[in-house]
Amino acid sequence: MRWLWGIIPLLILGWLAVEAEHTRIERDLADRAQSALQAGGLAWAASAFQGRDGVLSGKASDISDPDKALQLLGNVWGVRVVDNRADLIEQVENYNWAASRKSNRVRLSGYVPNQAAKQTILGMARANFPGFDIQDRMRLARGVPSVDTWLGGVSYGLKQLTYIQRGDVRLDALSFSASGEAEDAGAYRTLRSISNSLPKGIKLASANITPPTVSPHVFTARFDGKALALKGFVPSDADEAHVIAAAREKLPESAVSDDAEPGAGAATGWKDAAALIVRQLVRLENGQAEIKDGLVTISGLAADDEVMEAARQSLKGLPPAFKVIDHLQAKPKPKPVEQLTLAPVPPPPTAPDLQPKAQEPAEKKETPLSVSSTSPVVPPPAAAPAPAAPPRQAEPKPEPKPTPPPAVTAPPSPVAKAPPAPPPSPAQIKAAKACEDNLSGLAAAGTILFRYGSAEVSQTSFETLEKLATAAKDCPGMTIEIGGFASAEGSPFANLRLSESRAQSVLNFLVKAGVDARQLEAKGYGIARPAAPNTTPENMAKNRRIEFSVRPKAETR
Question: Is the CB of residue 141 less than 8 Å from the CB of residue 89?
């Protein structure tokens, strides 16, 4: 019986050897089978073995693919039989696919026909959006009309998505659609031409693309009397066309230049507001307007007061979301010219011709010479006896006339001059500086406004002027100059007169408020010393101002 104890270990060792070989065979068959499936383009298929018997599993995208997989597995050396348990992927009627973009994230969703197409789409997404977070939500499904045409539509859609900063592109079967906000103005123009660049076999379903949002939303119009130039941003193509049509109601087509770019973010009612403003602008001699969000600033020169007032009345019809800053001016009326009737001036009398008399022999006559006591005395020549018969001789030369004595000018009497005023003391200069700083600070903190185009002080300025009057009373012994300044709108002469009148209006108010008139001087500087370049309505508003300068009365200028 001892030999039985020797057989048992041998049986165990044999069984272990068979099992080890069995596992090795299964692993070898599985590896070679999977390689065959991959080489045949059937990556969807999977195989498993029990001994030499195989099992095919997975979901095929085409009804013929399971048979192809069975044939490939049956050709693998060592495989005895294969059990086909493969299935087909889902069949869908509405075959759709989409890609959406937000910030730095791109999400892919919808259906793809097979695993190879899915990997191709992921590769295209990474190429178009390097560094983005690509999220894969795609599922395998049957029902695509044409794989190659469909993939061309997907590639086109991902390219268009690069021009959209927030939005999506879609394929419903072979119909393409896009929606969202364009990346910039150039991208918006590209997306507007989608219908002209679709790949073959793809048709356009819709394209709802909005311009990029800009802030602040600024639109400008400038009219030089002949041509209108438009710049800035317009909310849409339709709004832009509406504004241009309003301008061409009065101007020829060639007189309107449009350099505006698409940009969303305009206030409600922008289209009607911009058209109204352009209509008023082209009625002026020249002018410019700016729409900045809901604020309208308009300036310009009207032919007369009637045109200016008509424009102002029209501007009251702007939509409620808009407010107006009006800098319109009317062309100043020319002063009447007095006609003078000039009496005819008689011609001057004709001077007598002295040439004949000069040629006659002079009559000999002695004239006594009067000499002042301070002049040198010249004795007269002695008379010579006349000869009885003088011989013929050359005509005697005339005697030179005596040189008149030089005039004696009395020295000027000395005139007493007033001694120059002593220069201001350091204390006076310091006091003047303190007074000037105080006045300037009050003026800057408050408001000094006038009716447009006039020197009439607005009631809203009374409080500030009263504070200035109180401060001026605290500056005894000082001369306070009130300087008026204007912008470059209008003629320089009219601006100079207006600045003088406004400075005088401030002086009159201060005098009525109790300031000694002998302390005050009003002076207009017109457009001199601008506080800012006269290039924008805001800068022009800064240049229409009142300034105060203070000096001690002893100072000479």
Answer: yes
